[in-house]
Amino acid sequence: MDINSKPGSTKNNKTGGWRTYKPKVDNGLCVGCGTCIQNCPEGAIQIKEDNNGNKKPKINYDYCKGCGLCAEQCPTKAIKMELEEK
Amino acid sequence: MKSKQKKQSTNKNMIAPGHKACAGCGQMIAAKAVANALGEDVIIANATGCLEVTTTPYPQSSWRMPWIHSLFENASAISSGIRATLDYKIKHAKTKKEKQKLENIKVVAQGGDGATFDIGFGLISGMWERKENIIYICYNNEAYSNTGIQASGATPWGANTTTSPAGSGSSIDAIGSHQRKKDMLALALAHGLNYVAQTTAGHPQDIANKIKKAKQTKGPSYIQILSPCIPGWKIKSNQSIKVAKLAAKTGLYPVLEYENAKLTNVMKVEDNPLKVDEYLKIQGRFKHLFKNKRGRKQIKYIQSIADENIKKLEIGK
Question: Looking at the 3D structure of chain B, how many domains does it have?
């Protein structure tokens, strides 16, 4: 009987379909502090360097459930929640 | 190539996305901070609860480290077994390298407040009594949220749960939960633990620091994390961090740590600490307290608990 699961295999579940509001990052306002990354329950936000070497968050919409914690906690209000039309 | 691999690993969480926790789950913020701070060299024994159910929908698992689940009550007993096996392997290691590798592995048991305060308490007590080198982490959402918000030993005064429903009658039952919240930190200290800490999901960096401290501690340690529950506390999905921070700011759930039974670190509250009303009014489970005179009396009582904490721990400035 094989009752072992492969580590990290839930990544096959695309939970992005749960979302009603979609977070959008305003890179002009973002200072790259990383608060949103720490506060994302999904781990759907990663920090990436843009062409100028500035650190900016990148949201993985495959997994983002649209809870709005990143927008609520952002110290510069650089993330806005927008109604998503599917 | 090597540097590229390293870069990827710093961006990768030890809990994979795609788990089935509610949007905005406070527990998942805490669990993610815990797992990232623990790293790869760890074996986790998980009790039944929301954390287990949401992260391991069979045949999948979110965890990117060794992780085992068996029953509600025995996460601590399983971790004791794992610890015993590791100790035996360390004793009989053939090479120095192998021995060092085995010694680096930490054993962690974790569960919710139901598994910790109520169902699993006997076995946890045994694990602590044996002074085993295990970290126990409790994600405290103050109810059995996984099965439908039943009251647990951690449910606070006046909370509306499905087994302590608030009503309009004149008996004491009408105010919601009216049992004393179990003081698990005092129980842990009574077992003579070397490291006991309390924090909230609103302070992920603090969680990481405390886990790192617990990792360096020899012997058992206990960390309790307040994890707001979206359906259980009846809050909006973007409020879990705010509520957790308010719990610390009002003095109801102070962020602190005890090392060798001495209070070594505690987060201060502001000059005029926020009133508990701020914490209670955004949660639907306390909504009934604001409706009548009797409810307001309960708020006064909850405020007295917070004031007592502030006085006892000297966290006011």
Answer: 1
Assess if residue A15 is contained within a domain.
no
ipTM confidence: 0.92
Phi, psi of B42 (to 5 degrees): -155, 150
CA-nearest residue of chain A to B235? A67
Helices B75-91 and B121-129 pack at an angle, to 10 degrees, of 30
The reported pLDDT for the residue numbered B11 is 64
Q: Give me the domain span that covers residue A69.
A: 29-83
Residue of B nearest to A19 (CA): B23
Q: What is the pTM of this model?
A: 0.91
Cα–Cα distance list, B94 to A50, B90, B98, B250, B261 (Å): 49, 9, 7, 54, 38
State the average pLDDT over residues A52-60: 87
Count of domains for chain A: 1
Do residues B241 and A72 lie in contact, with contact meaning Cβ atoms separated by under 8 Å?
yes
Residue type, B194: N
Instruction: Classify residue A9: in a domain, yes or no.
Output: no
